Structure formats: C-alpha cells, structure tokens
Amino acid sequence: MKIDNSGKPLGSIASRPLEARGTAKAEQGAGQDSVSIKPLAAKLSDVAGAGKAEATFDADKVAAIRQAISEGRFAVKPEAIADGLLSSVKELLAR
Fold it and tell me: pLDDT tens digits for 30-55?
C-alpha cells in the first residue's frame, strides 16, 4: 500500500507545534465552571420527569410474558411494534 501526501493540511492546527495545541485548549477551558440548559433541553427534562410518575407495570402480565418466552409461545408482532413507535414519535412531535 502506498501512502501519499496529497491531502490538504489541517490549517492552523497542523501549523502549531504539538505542545502548543494542548496548552491552548487548557487555557480556553480554564475558569469556566458555568452550565446552561437551553429551553428545549429543559422542556425535554420536564417531559421525562412526567413520564416517571406513570411508569408502573403489571407484574402478572410480566410473569405471563416471561413464561410464554420460556415455553417458546411468545410471538413478536413487528406491525404492533412499528405502530407503537410511530405513535410515540407523533406524540413527541406534537408537544
């Protein structure tokens, strides 16, 4: 395999010595301890928090599904999974 140097240089990063690259990044990040959450991220956080209150499950149904899987009787329905995913996406986009 032949390696050639016909590629373009990386601009200012390639022209600086390796040692200077690391110190420049360290100087840029020094003294920055603040974090800001954008409005959309805050909204997503609120939606996720609301879903936790509704997160209950039917232990009997879980046991029945577990039993069906172990006996080989559980059938996956791809159409039902796809429909559920699409309705979830539609619900999220409507918010």
Answer: 566 777 777 777 777 665 555 555 56
